[in-house]
Specification:
This protein has 240 residues and is an alpha/beta fold. It has 9 helices and 9 strands. The termini are close together.
């Protein structure tokens, strides 16, 4: 029995991690193009690093909520793949082992030339990446090539790590598809709804679902902690 859980910011919002948009969001007081684009990095590395240092400190202090623990409980009973847009590690803290971070992880750093150089300069690419226990600071240099280090997060204009080969390996094996805490309207991640459209059992949990996109889904309109734990208990009984 294989279950795929696709999650977004709404999964972690109830743990105190603000969403990027909206009042109190991580982008409040910042322009997206200044702190979340390759151009912004080229223009002011210190500003970008200060922004992500704030996010790092906030996320490190937060703890998993009932929805994270529910997913971990599900993974104790079934073959569960978690695909998340979140850069926090609350799923891992809750005990989930197989998490695909398609937008990167706040607790990793990488070389600024990590696969972000056009192909004609491929000989200059650097594959350095490592976990961190403190934010990347201005002046931190790659130990492999000497270029600057940056957070291992995906910025606007960069490719999302969709792990396409792995997706195709599991596509026809999935029995249940759960989408939680995301509008699922931002591409390319939104393609997952189409990619798993033939999965026999599908659930969508979000306070503001777009019903036009959700043909074939059982929609639970509300927060993750309200619906996900009960749904997972139900699935455990039904699929046992």
């Amino acid at each position: 029995m294989m279950i795929v859980v696709f999650s977004g910011a709404g999964l972690s919002a109830e743990s105190g991690i603000p969403t990027f948009r909206g009042d109190g969001g991580l982008w409040e007081g910042y322009k997206i193009e200044d702190v979340a684009t390759p151009l912004g990095w080229m223009q002011n590395q210190k500003l970008v690093l200060d922004f992500y240092a704030q996010g790092f400190e906030k996320m490190q202090k937060c703890q998993p909520n009932a929805a994270h623990f529910a997913i971990a409980e599900l993974a104790n009973h079934f073959d569960v793949v978690c695909i998340t847009q979140n850069i926090d590690t609350l799923l891992e803290k809750a005990g989930v082992k197989d998490v695909w971070h398609i937008h990167g992880r706040i607790d990793y750093q990488k070389c600024e030339w990590h696969f972000d150089i056009p192909p004609m300069y491929s000989e200059w690419q650097c594959n350095y990446k490592s976990p961190i226990n403190k934010p990347v600071e201005w002046g931190d240099l790659c130990p492999k090539c000497g270029k600057h280090l940056r957070p291992d997060v995906v910025w606007f204009g960069e490719a999302v790590d969709m792990r396409v080969d792995d997706l195709y390996k599991i596509q026809n094996q999935v029995d249940v598809f759960i989408v939680v805490g995301t509008s699922a309207q931002v591409y390319p991640a939104a393609n997952l709804l189409k990619f798993f459209q033939d999965v026999p059992t599908k659930y969508f949990i979000d306070p503001d679902p777009n019903y036009e996109l959700l043909d074939g889904f059982t929609v639970l309109e509300g927060k993750a902690t309200k619906y996900l734990p009960a749904l997972i208990e139900s699935l455990k009984e039904e699929l046992a």
